[in-house]
Amino acid sequence: MVRFSIVVIHTISKLTPLEQEYWHTAEDNALSRHLSLAVASWTQQRANDAASVELLTLDCQ
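Structure (tokenized):
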């Protein structure tokens, strides 16, 4: 099974150019879980700057 983790930033006016990218990975579950934790932390830190940040995770067999 492969897990895809995608971070979608809807309001990017206050973010840096690097943060304005869509983040995407298609790695094994362990790395995806690690990324999900990192993204959750990053999302909390950026909550005051972005109006809407969401993490979409899809499991594909």
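The CA atoms of residues 4 and 26 lie 5 Å apart. The chain has a mean pLDDT of 55.
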